[in-house]
Design a protein that fits this description.
Layout: H1 6-34, E1 38-41, E2 54-56, E3 64-65, E4 112-114, E5 117-119, E6 121-122, E7 132-142, E8 145-156
Antiparallel strand pairs: 1-2, 1-3, 4-5, 6-7, 7-8
Bound molecules: calcium ion (3 copies).
Length: 160
């Protein structure tokens, strides 16, 4: 067994310290270039992750997304960019399907009957998403009866 001289031991320690510093610099460079290393749970597999459920990993784990933009991870129809409308709430009572923080309604116009010609739309107040209302579709002129009678149908308001 050989014993290192103090000079050789000092040189070896300096080389080890330089090696550790180089390794740490490499890790920092990889994180800066390759990132992100945070992954977000994508329980409904719509490609958008839950901001409240994240893990750290070098590679993307199964069931996780790179982004944290899913506002409701229990429904794959709820995601940023959704443009469809739905008659039922997304699962938590909300109709915010496109994750912009608001429930939009598909139909907002009011209906009217103008000299027997129907301008299609809701009769009365515009119902909330998921609620039904009376939708004016036609005005029937009936001889001797004024104002014209109104045909109405029930229609479900859809929201997103
Ligand atoms: Ca999701
Ligand atoms: Ca979703
Ligand atoms: Ca919305």
């Amino acid at each position: 067994m050989s014993v290192l001289s103090p000079q050789k031991r000092h040189l070896l320690q300096s080389q080890m310290a330089a090696l550790i510093l180089a390794f740490l610099a490499l890790v920092v460079a990889i994180v800066a270039v390759v990132g992100p290393f945070w992954w977000y749970k994508d329980g409904d597999a719509d490609g958008f992750g839950d901001p409240d459920q994240r893990i750290w990993a070098l590679w993307q784990p199964d069931g996780y997304a790179e982004n944290n933009r899913d506002c409701y991870d229990g429904n794959k129809d709820v995601r940023p960019g959704q443009t469809s409308f739905f008659a039922e709430d997304r699962g938590d009572g909300s109709f915010d399907y496109d994750c912009n923080g608001e429930s939009e309604r598909e139909l907002t116009q009011s209906g009217s009957c103008d000299n027997g010609t129907a301008n299609q739309g809701w009769e009365g107040a515009v119902p909330a998403p998921g609620q039904t209302g009376s939708w004016l579709v036609d005005c029937d002129r009936i001889v001797h009866v004024l104002p014209p009678s109104i045909k109405i149908v029930r229609k479900i308001q859809k929201g997103r």
